[in-house]
Model the fold of this input.
Amino acid sequence: MEEHANAPSEPTPLPRKKKDPDRKALIKHLTIAGVSAVLVLAIALLFYFLPFRELLPAYAIPARGEGEMRLHFIDVGEGDATLIEFPSGNCLLIDGGDGSLENTNHLIRYLGGLEMKSLSVVSSHADADHCGGLQSVIENFPVEKLYLPVLPSDTGSYLGMVEAAEQRGVETETLTRYGCIGEEGAYAVCISPYSAGEEESNDSSAVLYVRGCGVNALLGADISSARERRLLGEWDLDNEIFNSGNCEVDLRDVDILRVSHHGSASSSAAEWLQLIDPEVAVISCGRDNDYAHPAEETIARLTECGANILRLDEVGDVLITLHDGSYIAQPLNLK
Ligand SMILES: [Zn+2]
Done:
């Protein structure tokens, strides 16, 4: 029998769509990229809206006793960051390390662990190992005043610090000899640089003589032996040449010295050390640094004058508490 012409024929199966392995991989990559971008954006927004310090746990630093003044030599590697806590609770930070993530995090966590009534900042000079971390300090703490060095710079770290101060309306002032910061009986007075004629960055860095609670300190910034000899010559000429108003300076009476230029051989001249005759010499330098700081010659000269040497690359942060004419030095080992 003949088959009916209109009989339904067997349905032809549709060809199955072949999966393209390249397309699959592309979708996977795009998904990962999308998720990553969202994560990066979320983190960036978090950093933008939350101050940096909110994300970093503050260190537990022993509380300051009533009437005490404290000097904090903060371990920022090959650089410098020194904080003075005056008896009133007002604080002065001199330099902020090199601005690397590790050192800046350490500095922010350290400052976050203190009860500061106010905070002002000195940028001793424009070198990156001193002013590199100050932009972050200004962005993370309510800085009252920023003391600028006599010689400005066009480096990113210097401009970043100045810009951060401008954006936050921080008052600025250039610090030169006779500039005195502090309160009655407890102060930091600048004995160098001069207000004119400075040409070399290290030698123009701000040297501070600090007095309080019957103890004296000298923060030598990065000056060389040439500047030390010049200051020594002025001292020999007139013992009162560095006095400024109520801020008296006596270079024969230095208990604690922050050794100049991280202990380099071209600083800490023997005759300078003989005059200031420090009991404690703090050297701020990095572990295995590229400059071999501190130099053996400097260590020998400091030992010769009988100073107890505290190297931050060996002991970490050092806290010195001043009270009633005496002081106690204590490594904090926070890093
Ligand atoms: Zn330096």
User: Anything to note?
Assistant: The chain has nine helices and 15 strands. The CA atoms of residues 138 and 165 lie 7 Å apart. Residues 21-49 form the longest helix (29 residues). Residues 80, 127, 129-130, 222, 262 surround zinc ion (CB under 6 Å).
